[in-house]
Each structure stands twice: as structure tokens, then as C-alpha cells.
Amino acid sequence: MNEVIASTPPSSSFLTVGLALKLSLTLNQQKAMYGTALLGWKEHAWLVCEWPLQLGHATEISKGTPCTVSYLHDGKLVGYRTEIRDMVTSPVPLLFIAFPQTVEEMHLRKHARVSSSEPALLMRTDTTPNTTSPIPSSDYAGGLVKDLSLGGCSIALTRTPSWIRPGSTVRMEFELPGLGHITNLVGVVKSTEVRQGLDMIGVEFRFNQMEYIEYRGWGGTVQNAIEQCVQQKKLGLGCLTE
Predict the structure, then answer these.
(1) Spatial separation of the C-alpha atoms in residues 81 and 22, rounded to whole Å
(2) pTM of the entire structure?
(3) Is-contact 89 57, C-beta < 8 A?
(4) Could you tell me which CATH number the domain at 113-234 has?
(5) pLDDT for 6-32, tens place per residue?
(6) Backbone angles phi, psi at 239, to 5 degrees
(7) Which of 54, 59, 140, 196 has the fewest beta carbons closer than 10 A?
């Protein structure tokens, strides 16, 4: 899951000359985003960047106009709320922006994510799978896989038991339509939230820990099966064999 982390920039080391920036601001009662490049900065005072070409040099921007600056850095989307400090049009059009006090970082997903709607069963990791004894009802929970990627999934629950919380490990089983039934897949709960009246949990998969799939005319590992399913859904074909 994408997690937003707020932090105080320790120094100007997070900035580099030529860094591509996106400016979001409201002009003439319309919100818009403009591309520019960082030219320099004064520590804890201001950033100076190129005047965005889309604005045109005759555009008036009032000092103190709120804006948001965002950019990519080390695989993260970084942004902060700030304001326009000053601008010059001669000899070179430049825009001065207040230096960040805090920044927000969001790690970008490594894997494509597609929608899903398959029933899932979650079990505590301290229970013994594949036994003939019934699993106590307090040790499992039923849900619905709402989205899926090679790295993990989101699962909707009507009620989240106390043993499902961020950092806890669970075992899962669910269907990949057309490919087979996945059993004993281990995952780590990364997030929990309430969305549209349902409890949503984000789970990160941990492969090669005794998971398996009951194949239906398809061969490969659980990891390969999930990757195949995601790719097919991206193409609009669903989880079908070729």
C-alpha cells in the first residue's frame, strides 16, 4: 500500500539543480498543474525555479498565493504545501517559492494493481493448516479480495478480529478464476482502515513459505499464477489461461 510519511527536511540534500518539479496552484479560480525545473535555493528561505512556460510571461501571480510542490526522489513521490514568495520577468523569468518546513513522502507501488472481487479466507499463523480438526471460528475470518498485485492485496472484512492488525502475519486462501485455488499463502498486514462502512486491510505477500495452488490446466508457482492473473486483467481479459 502507498503510505504517506510526513518529515522535516534535514538539509538541502533532498534538492538537486535541474530537479523536475510540479507546481499546483489556483489562478483565476481554476486549479492547474505546471511543470518547471529547480534552479537553486536558499536554505530555509526559498526555492528558485524556471517560470513555467504554460503560464506565459505576462501572467500575474500574487505574492502569497498558496501552491503545492511535488517531485520524484529515490522512488518516492515527495510534496509540500507552500506559497509564492516573489517573481521576476527580466532578464530571465523566475519564480521564487517558500522553502519547505515539512515534506510528505509517499512510496510508489512497485507492482501494478488490478481490481478483484473474490472471496478470501484468512487464518491465524499459529493455527495448524490442513488438519482434519475444525478450525475454531475465532481463528479465521472471511473477506473479499478487492484488489490484487504481485506484491499484495486489499481485503474487505465486515468485522476485523483482534489478531488482524498492522504487523501481524496471516495465512490466506482465495481463488484465481481460471487458474486455480491458492492455499496457505502467507501475508503481513501492512494497514487497516474503514472505507465505505467496511474494514479494509492491506496485505503484503510473503512467497516461498509453503503456499500452493490447485491448478486448472495451468502450471507454475503461486507467484507466477498471481502475476499471470494481474497481467491478464490489465489487458481486460480476466484471469484466463491463454
Answers:
(1) 12
(2) 0.53
(3) yes
(4) 2.40.10.220
(5) 555 544 446 788 888 888 888 888 888
(6) -85, 75
(7) 196
Contacts for 161 with CB less than 8 Å, ≥ 6 apart: 138, 141
Task: Extract the C-alpha cell encoding 150.
Answer: 504481485
In CATH, which superfamily holds the domain spanning 4-107?
Answer: Electron Transport, Fmn-binding Protein; Chain A (2.30.110.10)
- Report residue 133's pLDDT band, with 50, 70 and 90 as the boundaries: low
Residues 6+ apart with CB under 8 A from 191: 1, 3, 166, 201, 202
Query: Of 140, 234, 145, whose CA–CA distance to 181 is shortest?
Result: 145
Contact call for residues 61 and 26 (beta carbons, < 8 A): no
62/139 Cα distance (integer angstroms): 60
Over residues 145-196, the pLDDT tens digits come to 999 998 999 999 988 999 999 999 999 999 998 788 999 999 999 988 887 7
DSSP type of residue 138? G
Please report, as a single letter, which amino acid is at residue 212. Answer: Y
Contact 80, 69 (CB under 8 A): yes
The bridge status of strand 140-149 relative to strand 30-42 is: unpaired
